[in-house]
Amino acid sequence: MTFTSAILATLLLPLGFFSHLSGLIIKPASTPPPKPKIILTTASEPVYDITFEVISTPTATVTPTPTVKPTSSPTPKPTSPPPPLTSGSSVQDYLMQEINNYRRSQGLSEVKTDSYTCDFAAIRAQEISSAFNHDGFSNRLSSKTLPYPSYSVVIENLAKISDYQKVVTLWINSSGHAANMRKDTPFVCVAQNGNFFAYEGFKP
Question: Where in this protein does the record put region Disordered (predicted)?
């Protein structure tokens, strides 16, 4: 055996040895069969039909205009206030009448006020005068503290506008608000606090 062949022989033994070990290491281990998945189901609560949106009149952007001397003094146009309410009526009566006019135009039955909706509407009108959003409604819904003895449908519409006669028109011209006014909620009430209006409705 030459010196070169002796070196090769000593190298081949370890290579074969490691090859043998490698075969032992990569041998796939047996795995247990996967455990079956267990899906738990629970009875769900009734799904309440809650669609609500916020609506307000946009704030006008005032753009400064250059001063121009008028050639003649223009006659200011008189602004006509909303017509006075009839004796014994109120803003709430007017709004409820307009809501029922809209419902009749859609072939729907009239809604009527009750103490639950009117009390809650008054609370919400006060709340949105400080924070104009639906949080007070949605938080009570989540915590199950809406002030109704029971309900299957609850709705809310909000508006911010100076002219009460335009409130229902705003809601009619908004698809989400109009859909709320068409909902099967026999009890509805609208309350006002300054320029803020809250519409609350529910169905037992």
Answer: 61-90
Amino acid symbol at 94: Y
Across 95-101, average pLDDT: 98
User: Radius of gyration of the chain from Cα atoms?
Assistant: 37
Instruction: Determine the pLDDT at residue 79.
Output: 41
Task: Decide if 70 is inside a domain.
Answer: no
The answer to whether the beta carbons of residues 165 and 133 sit under 8 Å apart is no
CATH code assigned at 112: 3.40.33.10
Q: Whose structure tokens read 């003649």?
A: 72
Q: How far apart are the first and last CA of the chain?
A: 104
Host domain of residue 173: 91-203
Tell me which of 133 and 53 has the higher pLDDT: 133
Q: Is residue 190 part of a domain?
A: yes
Non-local (6+) Cβ contacts of 127 within 8 A are 136
Pairing of strands 196-203, 153-160: antiparallel
| Residue 81 maps to a domain | no
pLDDT of 105 over the 70 cut: yes
